[in-house]
Amino acid sequence: MTAVPGVAVVVVAYRSADDLGPCLAAVRAACREHPLQIVVVDNDSPDDTAAAVRGEPGVVLVEMGRNAGFAAACNAGVAATGAEHVCFVNPDSRPRPGAIDALVAATVRRPGHALYSGRVVTTTGALDPGCCSALPSLWEYVCFASGLSTAFARSRWFDPASLGAWDRNDERAVPAVSGAFVLARRRDLEELGGFDERYFMYSEDVDLSTRAGRRGTPPLLVPSAVAVHASGGSSTSGAKTSMVLAGKVTYLRIHWSGPRRRAAVALLLTGTAARAAGSTMLRRGAKWREAWATRDRWRSGW
Length: 302
Hints:
The strands form two sheets. Strands 1, 2, 3, 4, 5, 6, 8, 10 and 11 form a nine-stranded mixed β-sheet that branches. Strands 7-9 form a two-stranded antiparallel sheet. It is an alpha/beta fold. The longest helix is centred in the C-terminal third of the chain and has 25 residues, at 258-282. It is globular. The chain has helices at 17-30, 49-53, 70-79, 99-109, 138-146, 148-151, 186-192, 204-214, 237-255, 258-282, 287-293, 295-298; strands at residues 4-13, 36-42, 59-63, 83-89, 93-95, 116-121, 132-133, 172-173, 176-177, 181-185, 220-229. The protein has two domains: 4-127 and 167-229, Spore Coat Polysaccharide Biosynthesis Protein SpsA, Chain A; 237-298. The chain is 42% helix and 20% strand.
């Protein structure tokens, strides 16, 4: 498909009826300098998600007919538009005014990157460090299993995924970015093959970032583009933790092999068991107990 000027914002929705109105209003304010098309992909929500956007001017509704997962829905959203730039925005994300314009400007100023992500903050204004991260490593999983990444959160050495105490206030290439608010040129998405649909949810953004880095076009963090993210609106805490772990194991299955992969999965199981035991002793926090109880569902990935 020949790309046309402008930006297509793809919003993958599931049980997101209440979020979509504020999200779409924020998207329109975030992209004033370029032709804008909004594509909402509904993963067969049982609520009024589809009805909330049906008939909205400038919005294309793609109804999947089943819950196909985040990666497949993103690819379906990309296929529904021919815009030169594609920006993925979670329904519980609120890009600030001009944020999408800032990402597009970064593609011109620094063209040697395939993915451009904004600085993400929570609803209280605090930094959400998960907007970018290191790629998975065996040392990261050792730190998780031993509890070091919890005891020394944001430590460069013992919480390597966090990239240390960096406040995300300067523009720099990073190993991986979150899919909550990220923009790409259509041609780069096509050359990368889009999102890997072997992932149902979680780690598909790390996978795409990995492939972008191997291609020599690593993601770029653009701090002038800010989005507020409420995180995890479509899943409960325990269910989300299990899905996050399933995504991590899927990444390991695809990108790692042999003893290294088996060691990493064993370390994930060890860290989950330790946290489940700790939450039982402290009688608080059920998410790790649920993750441990459902380990047979996630230990092989999606």
